[in-house]
């Protein structure tokens, strides 16, 4: 059986989250790959075909990492990113000081 954690670590770009959270994410992705691999084997696929099916589950690692980063951002940061620049600058620490 493939080492799915190692497979994920080699392909997943930096997530910019805590090391503990990154380990959790790697573990979760590895579990998903392992489950797909096992499901394919149970359906009668060869180990090679099962591995390819599992790997196809996450084809774009850069996009996956971007989605994870977006989901992991604190809510306040997400809300701030949606504000118009004029509002962001007005509520920034420097903006408040200058007023």
The percent range for strand residues is: under 5%
**What is the count of DSSP helices, taking H or I runs of 4+ residues?**
7
pLDDT averaged residue by residue: 86
- Major beta sheet, specifics? none
What is the helical fraction, as a range of percent? over 70%
Low-confidence stretches: none
SS-based class: mainly alpha
Number of strands: 0
**What string gives the helices and strands in order?**
HHHHHHH
Distance between the termini: 63 Å
Shape, per Cα inertia axes: elongated
Rg for CA atoms: 20 Å
Task: Report what the structure shows.
By secondary structure, this protein is mainly alpha-helical. The protein has helices at 4-11, 19-42, 47-56, 61-72, 75-82, 85-91, 93-98. α1 (4-11) crosses α2 (19-42) and α2 (19-42) packs across α3 (47-56). It is elongated and about 60 Å long. The model has no long low-confidence stretch (mean pLDDT 86).
What descriptive keywords fit this protein?
mainly alpha; 7 helices
In short:
By secondary structure, the protein is mostly helical. It is built from seven helices and no strands. The protein has helices spanning 4-11, 19-42, 47-56, 61-72, 75-82, 85-91, 93-98.
Topology:
Elements: H1 4-11, H2 19-42, H3 47-56, H4 61-72, H5 75-82, H6 85-91, H7 93-98
Helix pairs in contact: 1-2, 2-3
């Amino acid at each position: 059986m493939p080492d799915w954690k190692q497979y994920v670590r080699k392909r997943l770009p930096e997530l910019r989250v805590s090391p503990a959270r990154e380990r959790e994410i790697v573990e979760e992705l590895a579990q998903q790959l392992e489950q797909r691999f096992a499901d394919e084997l149970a359906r009668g696929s060869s180990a090679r075909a099962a591995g390819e099916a599992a790997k196809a589950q996450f084809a774009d690692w850069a996009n996956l990492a971007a989605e994870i980063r977006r989901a992991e951002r604190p809510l306040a940061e997400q809300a701030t990113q949606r504000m118009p620049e004029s509002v962001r600058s007005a509520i920034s620490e420097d903006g408040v000081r200058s007023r």
